[in-house]
């Protein structure tokens, strides 16, 4: 009893830190989700399940659910095919230039989906500038082939292939090299080693990657919005968007149910994969670490050519088409030496107030999110690592939720939570702050995990040494922990910035006139037929993203292992 | 420099069955150089971390210079104790240069710039690091890092210095030269030092007094020569120094400074402080090889130590250790006599006996 008293007395500064850091984080990141759950059971309107039943029995809901399942499942199949092929080839064989291959495969993941969709639309279809240049354009009036479920599936698949790739490659790296060596010693050739040893053992990682691709595809808004809305093919996220933008906040309870439906499907997907994993798990014994390099023999050169051609097709082709479209004076004009112009670029970057505002908004939001999250994550990660409590462990387990849940779910949750800020008359709806809060909730984990991993590697004796020479908690955090965790904090901040600056799903539901983000503006420009300007804006964002990725890549030496997602 | 006192100090970690420290009582005079010696897991580091203020005691009290550092109601956090610690891993801050590492304690204390520079230079000179001031820790050898850790600790003139196996990561040659550094350094600044080691040579060489620990208790706390000549129990006798520990039968006959015991089938006069000893500690130098000796033993092993041989001699089911100047043959019979051995009463011998009786 007396001992606990002594504890309380001395760790007062830690307790204060706990209050200052843990509670706001828990409130902002988990509050909205809780609010949404409450809405689902009708707390706002007197504990009824009326909304629940009425929404769930509507035909539009069922169609959208079906479409969501079809596109997400189809996309997952493509993601698995592409991501797994790359992972097996890169992790197991002796193909050359692996780092460059991986970087190029990661770019589609970092490019926002609506830009992916926009770019691909410039590759196909009757008014493709690129096809016209090559004289391959289909006749005018023929339909855009991507405005279809197949188009959505294809792009979802390509967009999320890197998720499967990363998970599977991480799994393959854990594979004890001895297992493969034992099989080769028994006389098995590379093909047999792969099909009978590697594939069965890496199945858990493959399933986990597929589940991630499925959940992410389910929540994707940019691609079904750009490709599906023109074709009147709604998925759950686009249905929510159309309801909310069409009818306004009055349908909030209704869309809350829809977003809970998505969340439920996502959680079911994850649970199903867990179930499969539990059945198929093997205890792997042995040392991993020796990278496998099965020789492809004479097939190496053709395989390499195929990989690079594929990357060219999914990366260079759409971006070239996007660039071509951004350089013409008006949609429909072919790109020739005498028509090439930077008019759209100038218009998009300097003249149009709306695009300039969007740039300012997105940069502000991304920067504010990155800095705020950094400020909170450092002490929070420290608390979780050094002074774990029941509360901090719970937060640690739950903080993935806002990031893992589909973006529309979080948006609806934020609208519900901040439409009228609890205990005040304040409404954040329609201001830029609601977007910022949503970003904080969503990207917290992106910032927290790198810092956590670097603090876990930090010898606690570093801080004890500082304490023994007289440094107080705050001094220790500032002078010892902060500088040592700074590289990972920087990496985390850049990741948050990258993800936030071209975010669409969350802001699509939260923006209002004056608080447009880049993602929203590209979507709106394309929607209103300003394809050329949308392309120029999109292209400028792609340049920004690739430059930031390259900057992170260049600083890779300074970051602890496993922080940069496209490296590990 | 102040007196450090542990009273009834206990530490029970959550989730572990045995206490890491069990009712430790000890008092260390100001300026003393104390070694904590004991097998792995006996609680040396725990005692050090409690003293430094990184852990809270489960019971008992730590006081420094009469001031309570930790007890049931008070707990002075590490940063307010003014106790320096040198970690086994050195724990140098990798983002600071040698000079910045050393000056950090002074920055924390808001010492003025000029004063700081002076004291850092002094500490670096004292540890022979003057030429390395601008280096980063990663650019130093193990011994140099060790000295930076030492300089960082002494620069703020702590009330006591704790060193946790500071030489464990160094090679043998460097160890003995660093031992020299520590000794000179202790002479020079006269700080109270608490030095953890499991190398008894190091402890015997450096310390004014040694606390021998075993499973969370201090078994004996005495000067090195006392530990060696007059071990308090079987554990200390076996752990410190070479030789044999053999159960004896007391005769009850006393002598000046000793008693008569029966061991190896003979009566021997031994040094003792109690009338009824249970064991005798026979060091190699207590065994004299002499043809006229009353005991007969057989050589069962020998090692050349350089300058002399260490013989293992078996007699009556026990193995004694003796030194010889010439090589012996394995199996050779030797005449021995035992002189000046130390007999003591091991408190656990009774419980062992009682347990044996209970089982019989
Ligand atoms: N944080 C902890 N939690 C639980 N048990 C601990 C903790 N730290 C130490 N112990 C236990 O307390 C006992 C004493 O540990 P301590 O580190 O003090 O040993 P030591 O004498 O320093 O050993 P070594 O010579 O190996 O460093 C051990 O049994 C150890 O397992
Ligand atoms: Mg230890």
From TrEMBL, chain A:
<feature type="transmembrane region" description="Helical">
    <location>
        <begin position="403"/>
        <end position="421"/>
    </location>
</feature>
<dbReference type="InterPro" id="IPR035906">
    <property type="entry name" value="MetI-like_sf"/>
</dbReference>
<feature type="transmembrane region" description="Helical">
    <location>
        <begin position="64"/>
        <end position="92"/>
    </location>
</feature>
<feature type="transmembrane region" description="Helical">
    <location>
        <begin position="532"/>
        <end position="552"/>
    </location>
</feature>
<feature type="transmembrane region" description="Helical">
    <location>
        <begin position="150"/>
        <end position="172"/>
    </location>
</feature>
<feature type="transmembrane region" description="Helical">
    <location>
        <begin position="251"/>
        <end position="272"/>
    </location>
</feature>
<keyword id="KW-1133">Transmembrane helix</keyword>
<feature type="transmembrane region" description="Helical">
    <location>
        <begin position="480"/>
        <end position="501"/>
    </location>
</feature>
<feature type="transmembrane region" description="Helical">
    <location>
        <begin position="99"/>
        <end position="123"/>
    </location>
</feature>
<feature type="transmembrane region" description="Helical">
    <location>
        <begin position="193"/>
        <end position="218"/>
    </location>
</feature>
<feature type="transmembrane region" description="Helical">
    <location>
        <begin position="305"/>
        <end position="328"/>
    </location>
</feature>
<dbReference type="Pfam" id="PF00528">
    <property type="entry name" value="BPD_transp_1"/>
</dbReference>
<keyword id="KW-0812">Transmembrane</keyword>
<keyword id="KW-0472">Membrane</keyword>
<comment type="similarity">
    <text>Belongs to the binding-protein-dependent transport system permease family.</text>
</comment>
<feature type="domain" description="ABC transmembrane type-1">
    <location>
        <begin position="359"/>
        <end position="550"/>
    </location>
</feature>
<protein>
    <submittedName>
        <fullName>Iron ABC transporter permease</fullName>
    </submittedName>
</protein>
<keyword id="KW-0997">Cell inner membrane</keyword>
<feature type="domain" description="ABC transmembrane type-1">
    <location>
        <begin position="65"/>
        <end position="273"/>
    </location>
</feature>
<feature type="transmembrane region" description="Helical">
    <location>
        <begin position="17"/>
        <end position="38"/>
    </location>
</feature>
<feature type="transmembrane region" description="Helical">
    <location>
        <begin position="427"/>
        <end position="448"/>
    </location>
</feature>
<keyword id="KW-0813">Transport</keyword>
Automatic annotation (TrEMBL), chain B:
<keyword id="KW-0813">Transport</keyword>
<dbReference type="InterPro" id="IPR027417">
    <property type="entry name" value="P-loop_NTPase"/>
</dbReference>
<dbReference type="InterPro" id="IPR050093">
    <property type="entry name" value="ABC_SmlMolc_Importer"/>
</dbReference>
<protein>
    <submittedName>
        <fullName>ABC transporter ATP-binding protein</fullName>
    </submittedName>
</protein>
<dbReference type="GO" id="GO:0016740">
    <property type="term" value="F:transferase activity"/>
</dbReference>
<keyword id="KW-0808">Transferase</keyword>
<dbReference type="InterPro" id="IPR008995">
    <property type="entry name" value="Mo/tungstate-bd_C_term_dom"/>
</dbReference>
<dbReference type="GO" id="GO:0005524">
    <property type="term" value="F:ATP binding"/>
</dbReference>
<dbReference type="InterPro" id="IPR003593">
    <property type="entry name" value="AAA+_ATPase"/>
</dbReference>
<feature type="domain" description="ABC transporter">
    <location>
        <begin position="4"/>
        <end position="240"/>
    </location>
</feature>
<dbReference type="InterPro" id="IPR013611">
    <property type="entry name" value="Transp-assoc_OB_typ2"/>
</dbReference>
<dbReference type="InterPro" id="IPR003439">
    <property type="entry name" value="ABC_transporter-like_ATP-bd"/>
</dbReference>
<dbReference type="Pfam" id="PF00005">
    <property type="entry name" value="ABC_tran"/>
</dbReference>
<keyword id="KW-0547">Nucleotide-binding</keyword>
<dbReference type="InterPro" id="IPR017871">
    <property type="entry name" value="ABC_transporter-like_CS"/>
</dbReference>
<dbReference type="Pfam" id="PF08402">
    <property type="entry name" value="TOBE_2"/>
</dbReference>
<keyword id="KW-0067">ATP-binding</keyword>
């Amino acid at each position: 009893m007396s001992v606990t008293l002594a504890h309380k007395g001395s760790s007062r500064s830690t307790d204060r830190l706990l209050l200052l850091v843990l509670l706001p984080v828990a409130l902002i990141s988990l509050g909205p989700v809780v609010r949404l759950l409450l809405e689902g059971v009708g707390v706002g309107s007197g504990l009824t399940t009326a909304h629940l039943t009425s929404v769930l029995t509507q035909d539009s809901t069922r169609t959208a659910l079906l479409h969501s399942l079809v596109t997400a499942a189809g996309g997952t199949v493509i993601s698995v095919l592409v991501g797994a092929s790359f992972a097996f080839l890169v992790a197991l064989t002796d193909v050359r230039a692996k780092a460059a291959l991986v970087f190029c495969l990661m770019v589609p993941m970092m490019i926002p989906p609506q830009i992916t969709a926009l770019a691909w639309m410039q590759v196909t279809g009757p008014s493709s500038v690129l096809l016209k240049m090559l004289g391959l354009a289909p006749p005018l009036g023929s339909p855009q082939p991507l405005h279809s479920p197949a188009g959505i599936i294809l792009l979802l698949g390509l967009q999320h292939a890197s998720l499967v790739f990363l998970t599977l490659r991480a799994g393959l790296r854990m594979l004890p090299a001895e297992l493969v060596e034992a099989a080769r010693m028994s006389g098995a050739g590379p093909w047999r080693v792969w099909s009978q040893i590697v594939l069965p053992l890496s199945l858990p990682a493959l399933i986990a990657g597929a589940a991630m691709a499925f959940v992410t595809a389910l929540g994707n808004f940019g691609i079904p919005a750009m490709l599906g809305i023109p074709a009147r093919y709604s998925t759950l996220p686009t249905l929510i968007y159309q309801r909310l933008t069409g009818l306004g906040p009055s349908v909030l309870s209704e869309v809350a149910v829809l977003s809970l439906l998505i969340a439920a499907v996502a959680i079911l997907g994850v649970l199903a994969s867990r179930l499969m994993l539990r059945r198929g798990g093997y205890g792997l014994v042995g040392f991993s670490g020796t990278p496998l390099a099965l020789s492809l023999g004479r097939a190496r050169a053709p395989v390499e050519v195929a990989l690079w051609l594929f990357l060219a097709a999914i990366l260079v082709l759409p971006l070239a088409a996007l660039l071509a479209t951004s350089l013409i004076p008006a949609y429909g004009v072919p790109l020739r030496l005498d028509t090439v112009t930077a008019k759209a670029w100038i218009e998009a970057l300097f003249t149009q107030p709306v695009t300039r505002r969007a740039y300012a908004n997105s940069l502000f939001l991304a920067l504010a999110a990155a800095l705020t999250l950094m400020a909170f994550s450092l002490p929070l990660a420290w608390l979780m690592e050094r002074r774990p409590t029941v509360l901090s462990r719970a937060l640690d387990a739950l903080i993935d939720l806002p990031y893992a849940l589909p973006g529309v779910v979080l948006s609806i949750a934020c609208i519900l939570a901040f439409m009228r800020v609890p205990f005040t008359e304040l409404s954040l709806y329609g201001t830029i702050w609601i977007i910022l809060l949503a970003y904080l909730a969503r990207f917290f984990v992106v910032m927290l995990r790198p810092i956590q991993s670097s603090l876990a590697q930090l010898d606690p004796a570093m801080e004890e040494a500082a304490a023994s020479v007289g440094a107080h908690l705050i001094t220790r955090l500032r002078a010892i922990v902060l500088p040592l965790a700074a590289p990972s904090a920087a990496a985390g901040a850049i990741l948050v910035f990258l993800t936030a600056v071209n975010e669409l799903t969350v802001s699509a539901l939260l923006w209002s006139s004056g608080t447009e983000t880049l993602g929203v503006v590209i979507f709106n420009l394309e929607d209103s037929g300003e394809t050329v300007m949308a392309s120029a804006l999109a292209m400028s964002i792609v340049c920004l993203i690739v430059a930031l990725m390259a900057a992170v890549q260049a600083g890779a030496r300074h970051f602890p292992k496993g922080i940069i997602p496209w490296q590990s | 420099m102040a007196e450090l006192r542990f009273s009834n100090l206990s530490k029970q970690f959550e989730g572990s069955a045995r206490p890491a420290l069990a009712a430790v009582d000890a008092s260390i005079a100001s300026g003393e150089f104390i070694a904590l010696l004991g097998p792995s897991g006996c609680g040396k580091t725990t005692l050090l971390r409690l003293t430094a203020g990184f852990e809270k005691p489960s019971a008992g009290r730590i006081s420094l210079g009469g001031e309570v550092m930790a007890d049931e109601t008070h707990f002075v956090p590490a940063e307010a104790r003014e106790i320096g610690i040198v970690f086994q891993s050195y724990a140098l801050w990798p983002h600071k240069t040698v000079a910045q590492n050393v000056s950090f304690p002074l920055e924390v204390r808001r010492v003025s710039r000029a004063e700081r520079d002076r004291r850092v230079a002094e500490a670096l000179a004292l540890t022979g690091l003057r030429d390395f001031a601008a280096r980063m820790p990663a650019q130093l050898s193990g011994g140099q890092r060790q000295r930076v850790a030492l300089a960082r600790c002494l620069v703020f003139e702590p009330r006591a210095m704790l060193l946790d196996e500071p030489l464990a990561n160094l090679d043998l040659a460097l160890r003995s030269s660093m031992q020299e550094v520590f000794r000179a350094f202790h002479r020079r600044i006269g700080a109270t030092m608490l030095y953890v080691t499991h190398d008894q040579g190091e402890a015997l060489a450096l310390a004014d007094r040694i606390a021998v620990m075993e499973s969370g208790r201090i078994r004996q706390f005495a000067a090195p020569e006392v530990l060696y000549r007059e071990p308090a129990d079987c554990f200390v006798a076996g752990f410190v120094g070479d030789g044999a520990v053999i159960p004896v039968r007391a005769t009850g006959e006393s002598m000046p400074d000793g008693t008569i015991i029966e061991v190896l089938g003979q009566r021997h006069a031994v040094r003792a402080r109690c009338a009824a000893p249970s064991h005798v500690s026979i060091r190699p130098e207590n065994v004299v090889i002499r043809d006229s000796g009353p005991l007969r033993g057989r050589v069962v092993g020998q090692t050349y130590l350089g300058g002399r041989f260490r013989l293992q001699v078996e007699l009556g089911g026990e193995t004694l250790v003796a030194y010889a100047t010439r090589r012996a043959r394995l199996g050779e019979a030797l005449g021995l006599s035992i002189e000046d051995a130390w007999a003591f009463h091991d408190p656990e011998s009774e419980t062992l006996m009682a347990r044996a009786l209970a089982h019989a």
